[in-house]
Amino acid sequence: MARQLPFSMEAEQSILGAMLIYPKVLEDVRDLDLLKEDFYTESHQRIFDAMMNLYDHGKPIDLTGLITRLNDTAELNQVGGADYLVKLVDTAVSSANAKHYIDMIKNKAHQRKLIETAEMIVQDGFDSAAQLDEIMDRAEKKILEVTRSRRTTDFRSSKEIVREVMEKIQLLRSSEDRVTGIKTGYSKLDRITNGFQRGDLIILAARPSVGKTAFALNVALQSALRNPNAIAIFSLEMPAEQLMRRLLSAKSEIEGDKLRSGYLTNNEMNRLHETANEMKETKIFIDDSATVKMGDIFSKCRKLKSEHGLDMIVIDYLQLITGSGRNSGENRQQEVSEISRSLKALAREMDVPVIALSQLSRGVETRTDKHPLLSDLRESGSIEQDADIVMFLYREKYQKHDEEGAEPSLIEEVDVDIAKHRNGATERFQLAFNKNFNAFYNIDENS
Do 140 and 195 reside in the same domain of the chain? Predict the structure, then answer.
């Protein structure tokens, strides 16, 4: 026997009756965002819709006006006639209890949405033609939609907001640490950005072999050492073991070649063990799937956040992510635009900064001044549009080595150019880069 979907006939009748008697109840209905769809029975939906139509047009809501409205729309008989409307008045609750009954109606509506979502997931599960990844992603999105639909916020007064803002400013003023976001460990970068802010999409771009992967790993490492929750790294180009060797090299300051060959002195081996033990305590999680779709990234990050918390996502690199392929005729530029928008959505949903590495177009190679420009971002102008921060790396000695055959020095200065900063200033500064360790350092710790 089919089970009845959850609803409360008494609550629905009582609220509709109260709306006909107490004007204040209409304010509660608006404040608590009660909707036509929250009512289970179709007749109650029609009655509520008619009442709100009168309310929106500034007309009084009473029994006579409601009967007239429903009669004009030829719905009076469909809702049970005038006798049923009179019955609603008799079942009305007091205005003091209205909020309780509104909450009851909305809770039942959310239960029904959850059941409908579960049934949709079951139907999708039986669809043998559908891809499992698509089914899982759609299921997660639907569950989240039901969850989010319960979260409503009211207007906040300027008095309340100003007080909170001033308290935070006073706290920052009295503190030596002005970082409000996720700390990166690089003093100039943290000063300019106040730390990478939650919900921001940060694009990190450079020519090949300049060090963008090394820099992203250093930021992930420094953030993992300074922040309590997980750092997720998606490496589409490099296996996890290779990334971890780079991280160990940067942290222990042991040359990467030695870690690859195993030719280590006793002192270096002791230092490596010490670093390895420290790294084990960090919450760095690496996914090295060679191909990954945005749906996979969302799914894995949701799971990671629920289990370990989440402070940052690093993706190396944007152009290797596979598009949804929903539009078979779309070109690569459209696909990258979709991926870029999805990365911004990922940052907002996970409430973390997302650092996505990006390639540059070959146009930079044809210029005399090879400092990258925003127009050099490869394959899509939407990358610049969607990003909150765009950072370029430029290594002068690398350029000279690349073009003139000059050997680079052990320690090189790398320009970090914040070319776009939606919520702050753009600025260029330098970091020191040791290629043997794949490590970036602050040049001036006091800056």
Answer: no
Which residue in 37, 237, 241, 403 is the catalytic one?
237
What are 302-337's pLDDT values in tens digits?
A: 888 888 889 999 998 777 787 655 444 456 677 777
User: 242: domain CATH number?
Assistant: 3.40.50.300
Pair (96, 194) in one structural domain: no
Asked if 398 and 307 sit in the same domain, the reply is yes
First vs last C-alpha separation in the chain:
73
Q: What is the pLDDT of residue 327?
A: 46
Half-sphere exposure of 428 (CA within 13 A, CB side): 12
Q: pLDDT tens digit string along 235-254?
A: 888 888 888 888 888 888 88
**Phi, psi at 427, each rounded to 5°:** -160, 155
Token code pair at residue 259: 């870690």
Cα separation values, 188 from 194, 311, 396, 401, 431, Å: 9, 20, 20, 27, 9
The answer to the question of residue 3 being in a domain is: no
Residues 135 and 204 in one domain: no
- Considering 41-45, 256-260, 432-436, the range whose residues carry the highest mean pLDDT is 41-45
Residue 103 forms part of a structural domain: yes
308, part of any domain: yes
Residue 176 inside a domain? The answer is no
Which structural domain, as residue segments, surrounds residue 86? 9-148
Q: How many residues does the chain have?
A: 447
Percent of the chain whose predicted confidence (pLDDT) is above 70: 85
If asked whether residues 84 and 187 sit together in one domain, one would say no
Give the pLDDT of residue 401.
52
Residue 235: what residue type? S
Residues 86 and 30 in one domain: yes
Mean pLDDT of 428-435: 86
**Angle at Cα 194 formed by Cα 436 and Cα 394, nearest 5°?**
35
Q: Are residues 220 and 134 in the same domain?
A: no
Domain count, the chain: 2
Same domain for 129 and 210, yes or no, is no
Is 63:20 a contact under the CB 8 Å cutoff? yes
Segment 364-372 long-range contacts (CB within 8 Å, at least 24 positions apart): 364/207, 365/207, 370/207, 370/394, 370/399, 371/415, 371/417, 372/205, 372/206, 372/207, 372/417, 372/419
Is 412 part of the annotated catalytic residue set? no
Distance CA 381, CA 383 (A): 5
| Confidence band for 44, pLDDT divided at 50, 70 and 90 | very high
Strands 439-442 and 427-434, by their bridges, are antiparallel
- pTM of the complete model beyond 0.70: no
Q: Mean pLDDT, the chain, as a whole number?
A: 80
Q: What is the average per-residue pLDDT within 166-184?
A: 73
